[in-house]
Design brief:
This protein is an alpha/beta fold. The chain has a domain at 9-67 and 107-151: Dehydroquinase, class II (Rossmann fold, 3-Layer(aba) Sandwich), CATH 3.40.50. The protein contains five helices and five strands. It has helices at residues 27-30, 35-49, 61-70, 90-99, 137-151; strands spanning 10-15, 52-57, 77-81, 102-107, 129-132. It has a five-stranded parallel beta sheet with strand order 2-1-3-4-5, covered by helices on one side. β3 (77-81), α4 and β4 form a beta-alpha-beta unit. The two termini are 24 Å apart. The protein binds 1,3,4-trihydroxy-5-OXO-cyclohexanecarboxylic acid (DQA).
C-alpha cells in the first residue's frame, strides 16, 4: 500500500518592531543574539520537524495586520513576537481573532517582571499560549509547541 502523503504544515513567524536591533538593543534585557541567529535556530527546528516557515520582521503595525490577513489561507499557524505592539495593538489582536489562525505568542523577556505598562498583553487572550522570559529559547519552545498543536489537529 502506498504511504499517505501528508502535506507539510506552514507556519508564519512575525517579529515586531525593533527586533531587527537584537544583539545591539539593551543586551542586558534581550541578550546578545542577533535576529538572524534566532531565525537560524527556528529554521533548523522546522527542517527537523518537516514544517515550512516564512519569517518576517516589520516595525509597521498595518503591515503586520496585512501579513496575517493575507496569509489566512496559506498558513496553518502563526508564531509572533508582537514586541511593543503587544501592549497596544487592538488591530493585530483583531487580525488574529478574525482569521482564527492558531497562534503562539512569544517574548524574550518576562514582561510581567518589567515596567507596569508591559504587564498587559492584548494578544495573549487570542493566542493558544504564550512563552516568555527564556530569551531566544522562548522562540524555539514556542515553535515546538505550535508544531505539536498543529500536528495534533
Ligand atoms: C518584547 C517585550 C516588549 O515589551 C518589548 O516592547 C519588545 C520585546 C520581548 O520579546 O521581550 O520589543 O516583546
Amino acid at each position: 500500500m502506498k504511504p499517505k502523503t501528508k502535506t507539510m504544515k506552514r507556519i508564519l513567524v512575525i517579529h515586531g518592531p525593533n527586533l531587527d536591533l537584537l544583539g545591539e538593543r539593551e543586551p542586558g534585557i534581550y541578550g546578545r543574539l542577533r535576529l538572524e541567529q534566532i531565525n537560524s535556530a527556528l529554521k533548523k527546528i522546522a527542517k527537523a520537524k518537516k514544517v515550512k516557515l516564512d519569517i518576517v520582521q516589520s516595525s509597521y503595525e498595518g503591515q503586520i495586520v496585512e501579513r496575517i490577513i493575507k496569509g489566512r489561507d496559506k498558513y496553518d499557524g502563526l508564531l509572533i513576537n508582537p514586541a511593543a505592539y503587544t501592549h497596544t495593538s487592538v488591530a493585530i489582536r483583531d487580525a488574529i481573532s478574525g482569521t482564527g489562525i492558531i497562534t503562539v505568542e512569544v517574548h524574550l523577556s518576562n514582561i510581567y517582571a518589567r515596567e507596569e505598562f508591559r504587564h498587559k498583553s492584548l494578544i495573549s487572550p487570542v493566542a493558544k499560549g504564550t512563552v516568555l522570559g527564556f530569551g531566544p529559547k522562548s522562540y524555539t519552545l514556542g515553535l515546538l509547541a505550535l508544531i505539536d498543536l498543529l500536528n495534533a489537529r
